[in-house]
Amino acid sequence: xxxPLLMIPGPIEFTDEVMVEMSRPSPSHVDAAxxxxxxxxxxxxxxxxxxxxxxxxxxxxxxxxxxxxxxxxIIEPGDRALVIDTGxxxxxxxxxxxxxxxxxxxxxxAPGDTVSAAQVAVQLQQADYDLVTVTHVDxxxxxxxxxxGIAAAAKAAGALVVVDGVCATAAEELRQQDWGVDxxxxxxxxxxxxxxxxALLVASPDAMNKWRQRSTPVASYYSDWANWLPIMEAYxxxxxxxxxxxxxxxxxxxxxxxxxxxxxxxxxxxxRHRRLSDAVKAGIQAMDLGQVxxxxxxxxxxxxxxRYPANLDPAFLGHVRANGVILxxxxxxxxxxxxxxxxxxxxxxxxDILTALGAVESGxxxxxxxxxxxxxLAAAQAVLDE
Length: 386
Ligand SMILES: *Cc1c(COP(=O)(O)O)cnc(C)c1O
Known about the structure:
Layout: E1 5-6, H1 16-22, H2 32-49, E2 56-61, H3 64-69, E3 80-85, H4 88-99, E4 103-108, H5 117-124, E5 131-135, E6 137-138, E7 143-144, H6 147-156, E8 160-164, H7 176-179, E9 183-187, E10 198-203, H8 205-212, H9 225-236, H10 248-264, H11 266-286, E11 303-304, H12 316-322, E12 325-326, E13 328-329, E14 340-343, H13 350-366, H14 375-385
Parallel strand pairs: 1-12, 3-4, 3-5, 5-8, 8-9
Antiparallel strand pairs: 2-10, 6-7, 9-10, 11-14, 13-14
The chain binds pyridoxal-5'-phosphate.
């Protein structure tokens, strides 16, 4: 029996080359060869993030929530944040902003909807905002938000832009420098393609300046860039340094994964995610299932959120699992029981997509939903063969 295929919105399937790095003997964090690997990973992040040579990458040991927590560096008590809310993780960002003393106004979309740049522009006229936060892809709804348009509106209003890319970075198109994004953050276990445990972010010169010019201390010890900036600079310049022990094997795996992503090329990576996503969504539609995003135009390319048909046996995901594919249930509290999630980001290809759709078809049939076998697969193949 082969192992099951993990098709959830993180952790994802990792490449063999990445897993080999995880199994190597752990080097000292001050070993010259490890320092060189860390240096390369920092430099490569700028190319994956398309963030420009003067941006500052950070690699921290922690989950994606720690990367979100890094906004503490650019928040001073009394700052005003506008949180674009497209689901579960946007709500978390609002909580973090408030935790660190910002006033957070939340511009919410109904589950499955997004917030347009025009709506954001109108809200930006209502108050003087220091910060606008956006969830690039909300993992709880599969909604993709227009970062480019919102960042342009926020910049015009003089606000910094923070984008949670945990379900998007290295899969959905984002050009940090060209689009004016000040912090673009993610976690290793999503499209970046490394086991859980690294919080990753790149900060723009404007974000670093806001931090340098602050008049109050950063309200978190571990997240404070005062502790981490000298370390990132030292590693990049190949000098020995220490603040907290880096997750050495994860950093080695990250360096390998970033090289694999850059070898494919960012434009091709973005295009592959669009193509595979279109195939999955065509397959789901051919099975006559709805989807949580209310329009294909704002549906993410990193996951698909099909709605359950009426009266489906709750054992459905178990049947899919028995067919060799692990999928995720719902996450958004308001619609949690109404949908499931198929992750398709990172090193995914045609084989994975067709295997997942085949397992979904059989799972549906075993759960009392009569569809013609192969109907979803045929629709997906038609897209893949175009
Ligand atoms: C997964 C995810 C997070 C949280 O990451 P953790 O590693 O679980 O802390 C935050 N935001 C988004 C959009 C995510 O998909």
